[in-house]
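Interim report, section 4.2 (structural modelling).
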Amino acid sequence: MNINATLFGQVIWFALFIWFVMKVVWPYFQRIIAERQKTIADGLAAAERGRQELESAGQRAQDSLAEARSRAAEVIALAEKRAAEIVEEAKNAAKAEGERLIAGAKAEVEQQATRAKEQLREHVAALAVAGAGKILRREVDAKAHAELLAQLKQEL
Amino acid sequence: MAAGATAPTANEYISHHLVNLSVGDGFWRVHLDTLIMSGLIGVVVFGLMWLAGRRAKLVPGKFQAFVEIVVEMIDTQVRDTFHAKSELVTPLAITVFVWVFCMNAIDLIPVDFIPWIAEHVFHQQHWKAVPTTDPNATFAMSLTVFALIFVFNFRFKGVGGFLHEVLAAPFGIWLAPVNLALRIVEEFAKPISLALRLFGNMFAGEVLFILIALLAGAWVWSSPVASGVSMLAHVILSLGWGIFHILIITLQAFIFMMLTIVYLSMASESH
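Predicted structure of the assembly:
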C-alpha cells in the first residue's frame, strides 16, 4: 500500500464528477421525473373525470329515455282518446244523417199521399159529376155548375 | 503474457501486474494509470449519463430508462436514509455508485488485456487497469466523504451543537474525555474502513484473477496433458470467479454509496 500524491488527483477527479452530476446530470433527471409524475397524475385525473362524465352521461341518457317513454305513453293515450271521440262523432253524425233521411222520406211519402188524395178527389168529383149527369139524364153545364162542383169537391 | 524464451516467472508475472505506471519519487509519486483510468471511466460514463439526460423525453427510450432506473434507485435510497434537506447528497451518491461500479467493472476485463494495449500501443511496461485496486483512489473518495461529514456536522448542528455532541455523547458531559476519545476513533474509523473495504475487496479479486490467469500460462513450463488440464481449470475458474465478481463489484459500489449516505445522515441528525 503506497499512499502518495495520486490521492490529490483522485480527489480532484471525484470533486469534478460530483460537481458535474450535481449541476448538469441530476437536474435533467429531476426535471424529467417530475414532469413524468405530473403527466401521469394529470392523466389519472383526466381518466377519473372521464369516468365521472360517462357515469353522468349514462344517467342523463336514462333520464331522457324515461321521459321519452312517458311522453310517448301520454301521446298514445291522447291519440286513443281522440280516436274514440272521432268514432263517437262519426256515429252521431251518421245517426243524425239517417234520421234526416228518414224524415225526408216520410215527408216525401206524405206529400205523395196528399197529391194522390188530391188527384183522387178530382177524379171522384169528375166521377160524381158524370154520375150525377147520368142520373139526371141531362147535360149538366159544367160552366154553370162549376161553383157547385167545386163545393162538392171541397166536401169530398 | 508473452510466450517464448523470455517468458516471466510466476513471481515476475504477478508483481508486474501489481506495479503502477508512475512518475515522481517518494510522496510526490503519481500513479498515471490510476489517474487516467478513473478519469477516463468517469468522463465516459458521466458523459453518457449527460447525453441520456440532455435528450430525456417524457416517454423514455431504452438507454434513458436504464439510466433513470439507476438514478431513481439511488435517489430512493437517499430519500429513505437521509432525511435532512441537501442538494448534494443524491448527486454525491450517484457519483459514488456509478463511478465505483464502473471502475470495479474494469476488473472483469481479462487481466492482460488492458496492460497488453498499454505495452504494445503506448509502450508502457506497467499498467494497473482497475483504479479501485489503488488505495489512493479509494482513500481519495473516503477522505472527501470524511471532509463532507464535518461540513454537514457544522452546517446542521452549528459549531456549538457539534462540539457539545462530541463532548457529551454518549456518556454525558461529565465523561467528556472518554466521549471525545470514542468520537475520534469513531470518526476516523469511517474513512479508513470505507477505503480499505473497497480497496481490499478489489485488490483481492484482482490478485485472484492474476493467479487464475497464471494457470493458462502454465503450459510454458509443463507437459502437454498438464497444460491442457491447467488451461481448462483456468477457463472454468476465471468464468466462476468472474461471475461471482459481478456480485462483489456491485455490492462494493452499493456499500460504499450506502455508507456514504448513512454517514452524512448521521452527521446531519443529532444523536
